TrEMBL record:
Name used for this protein in its record: Protein Abitram
GO cellular component, one term: nucleus
Family stated for the protein in its record: Belongs to the ABITRAM family.
Domain of life: Eukaryota
Classification via PANTHER family: PROTEIN ABITRAM (PTHR13651)
InterPro entries in alphabetical order: Abitram, GCV_H/Fam206, Single_hybrid_motif
Amino acid sequence: SVTERYYKPRFLLDANGQKGHDQCALFHSNRIVLVTLAPSHPILKENKTVTKVDYQVNEKLNRLNNQVSGKWKKGGQKLQKQSALCIVTCSDGQTYTIVSTVPGSLIEVNEHLTTSPERLTEKPWSSGYIAIVLPPLKMDTMLLDTMTSPEAYVKARRDVIPKCYITDEETFVDSQCPIVEEG
C-alpha cells in the first residue's frame, strides 16, 4: 500500500497513560507525521462505532483553529507528545482523548472526521488519519529510534492485535485488513 511504501509506522503504547489506548505515528521521509489509531486501540480492536470527533479539546483550545502559513509551515499550534488532538465519542457513550504521539507543530487536523467520523475506523491509515504533525528539525530520527517499532509492537500486543495485521514472519503490516484501503 501507499502507507507501507512511504511511511514508517511507530507506536505509542498506552497513550496518555491509558492502558491499551495505543496510537500510531506514520513517519514520512519529508519529516511529517500522520497521527492515527493503532489496531490495538479499543476503538478499532472492539470495532466501535464512532459518532463524533471533536477537535475542541478544552474550553479555550480548538485544534480546528490551527493556522499555518508558508513553505516552512510556520504558526502551527505547538504540541507535546501527550497533547490532546481530539476527543472521540463512540455509540456506547465511551470517549477517548487522542494525543499527538510526537512533539512538534500541528500542520493540520483531518476536518473530514467532523462530518464523517466513521472514516476513523474504516480507513485509519489513509483518509481516517487524525492529524499531521511536523516534529522539530533533526528530532524525527530520534523519535523513530525511541518509539515502539512494528516488530516490538507485535510482540507487546500480539494477543489484542487483529490477526490480519500480523504476517507469518510475526511482523506488522497495514494492508491485510479489510478496514485499510489499498493504494
